[in-house]
Amino acid sequence: MKIKHVFLGLVCAAAISNTTYAAEDTLPDTMEKPGGFPERPLTMIVPYGPGGGSGQVAAAMAAAVTELTGEAITRDHKPGGSGMVGLTAYMAYPADGYTIVEHIDDATSAFASGSSDVNPAENLIPLVTSQITFSQIFIRSDEDRYTDWESFVAWAKDNEGTIANVSREGSMERVMLQSVMDQVGISLQQISFDKGGPRYGALKGGQVDALFEQPGDVKGFLDSGDFKPILTLLNDRPEAFADVPSMKDVGLDIEPLFRYRGFYVVKGVPEDRLAWLQWAFQKAFFQQSYQDYNESKFMNVIDSFRDTAGSIELINKTADIYRERYKEMGITP
Predict the structure, then answer these.
(1) Can you list the residues of the chain whose pLDDT is less than 50?
(2) Integer Cα distance of 24 and 110 in angstroms
(3) Cα dihedral across residues 203, 209, 210, 211: positive or negative
(4) pLDDT at residue number 331
(5) What is the β-pairing status of strands 20-24 and 2-6?
(6) Where do the structural domains in the chain lie, given as residue ranges?
(7) What is the pLDDT of residue 30?
(8) CATH class given for the domain over 2-133+258-329
(9) Which of these CATH numbers, 3.90.550.10, 3.40.225.10, 2.40.10.10, 3.40.190.10, describes 136-241?
(10) How far, in Å, CA of 184 to CA of 288, rounded?
């Protein structure tokens, strides 16, 4: 089975290449359980609320793994601190393979900034990265103070605007948005929500003026006509949003950063159990149900699959980029 995606040689490359990459399923259809493992349901720690992107991908991946293996997975949401509350809680669990954590690039940026001592490429073992995606800036479709990026910038230059996101100092959202604001000469107050429902509700209800989010996470609001994107934080327009300007279209010279989501176990899980979990989560990526889910959320614009080695490479390269950005922004010396 081969799934074609637009490929990034480096996920934080300056632009999406026009070449294609085939994420190929070469894994066996079945794998014998090591010593009967697992003998009870697995637990998946999700460090964000159920309504946002992490909650959605955790549900889809858990369903795909269960469909593949027949093993039940219980999801335990522990939101707070832009994912750090859940990660801290996860690190206290035994390294027996029964507990998995879903996490995003926040774990990488937190380690790169020094606000977390958990290195997701060393203290954790990535089972699979199953989503890599881009961000957009959204407004309400019925907004009459501004209707597009140009008019939004003009309005924000004369008003104290607010934008909802899920962020902490040094997160992907803050780094990208600060770069945008610096280049266009505006200042927006960033209001962070760890749970997707309140975050999206803040824009829909008019408590904030804009939203920084990934398009798949708010697809329901796009389908209903409540939200519309006014800027795609890529240097070229993806086909799915051909009518939305890219950063290059509006004169921004910024290297895009991406949201990635994956599933991990703590270092020290017995090797035979680790091998089975790697097979189960990587094979689940290719389950038709999971492929359909990713496609429905615009997660096939960029190749989203990374195995353990590819995930470690992604984490390390992204951490290096964050370190460079933090020095430029004065976050780290």
Answers:
(1) 1-22
(2) 32
(3) negative
(4) 86
(5) antiparallel
(6) 2-133+258-329, 136-241
(7) 95
(8) alpha beta
(9) 3.40.190.10
(10) 43
Whole-prediction pTM value? 0.85
Torsion of CA 5, 10, 14, 20, to 10 degrees: -20
So what's the pLDDT on residue 332? Answer: 83
State the Cα–Cα distance between residues 58 and 262, nearest whole angstrom.
9
Tokens at 222, concatenated = 């796009």
In whole angstroms, give the CA distance from residue 150 to residue 198: 27
| Helix pair 172-184, 105-113: axis angle to 10 deg | 80
Cβ atoms 62, 69 nearer than 8 A: no
d(CA 272, CA 214) in angstroms, rounded, equals: 36
pLDDT in tens, 43-64: 999 999 898 889 999 999 999 9
Closest CA to 307 of 15, 24, 95: 24
User: Which stretches of the chain are assigned E, i.e. beta strand?
Assistant: 2-6, 20-24, 42-46, 73-77, 99-104, 124-133, 136-140, 161-165, 188-192, 210-213, 227-232, 259-266
Residue 306 tokens read as: 């990374």
* Encoded tokens for 15: 């632009």
pLDDT tens by residue, 157-179: 999 999 999 767 888 999 999 99
Cis peptide before 34 (omega within 30 of 0): no
Evaluate whether 2-133+258-329 and 136-241 have a shared fold.
yes
